[in-house]
Design brief:
It contains 18 helices and 13 strands. It has 383 residues and is α/β, with parallel strands linked by helices. The strands form 2 sheets. An 8-stranded mixed beta sheet has the order 3-2-1-4-5-6-7-8, with helices on both faces. A 5-stranded parallel beta sheet has the order 9-13-12-10-11. Strand 12, helix 17 and strand 13 form a beta-alpha-beta unit.
Amino acid sequence: MDRSEDNEFYFNENEISRYARHLSLPEVGIAGQRKLKKSSVFCVGIGGLGSPLLIYLAASGVGKIGIIDFDFVEESNLQRQIIHCSNSIGRPKTLSAKNRILEINPFCQVEVFNSSLNSRNALDILNEYDIICDCTDNFPSRYLINDACVILGKPNIYGSIQGFQGQATVFNLKPDSPNFRDLVPEPPPRNLLPTCSEGGVLGILPGIIGLIQATETIKIITNIGKSLDGRLLVFDALLMKFKELSLRHNQSSDKILTLIDYETFCADKKSIKHTKEDESINSISVGNLRDLVNNKSPDLILIDVREEEEFVISSIHKALSFPLSEIQRGDAIPKLQKLAKDKKVYLYCKTGKRSLSALKILNNYGIQGVNLDGGIDAWRRNL
């Protein structure tokens, strides 16, 4: 047994056997493995990126792993979110991931937050961890994680994917390191950025990017090699090519001192180019809709235009299911026309894009409605 340092961090015979290939590496050895056991890493998002990252951080011997996600496992996740399995469908992603982590390595301590990370809780939650891994898929969360890491002085291991391309880098490693706002100073228009469910993603791609994030995390903990600090690694799976871009911190940028309302920040209508048809459709923020729901507005009706299996797993309280496919076929039009006579209709989907498409169709039938900006994802992030 190894008892050469604090008793809390000695290795028993099972651990020495488990980590033997690490211990054989001169760059890691017993000292590096002890650093891993002493470390704590927090992963925001347990999807395509978070799945491989968590699997390998657990296998590598990270002592404490924190995970946060408000979503449930869906069948469409399993093509890329490999920490989950068929038996996990319908379960919270946090519980599915925790069980898998402990199956891989029972020596890991796992802390679970089955909720959203938001401006109210981010600083308290993230402050307890050494390194933060951004495995999210939306800009409000990316800006929130970035700003919290800057305020707390935490390294932010970043990854993103879309289609056949992915990116990875390390933000905020040192005081003069670049952060996410140096890469994306202003949030891009939401209607120009399809999600994985809308634009698709090669299932293997998040595995590649997630493992790069895991590699950077382990290197930083053990203080070996050269990190991606100041370098953005871009991967194209179709061409099987990597390219590297330099990234520097803008010293003249405003200092980040407090957290803000990131849904509003990323939904800035001044930055969005609408078509004339889009401009005729009203939208509502999560906060304003929640006020109407909490006040039990009598003329309000919520319509969920996602597919039935999505609705069954999770929906906004008292919402009715009218999938976009039924609206497109015309099957749902008579019922919606009847409902719209007496109620104010509010539509939502996952991110706001399918509901916008549905409202365009409904307008042709004289049905006026309001679109929830950011969809149910934004609703959950602000619970």
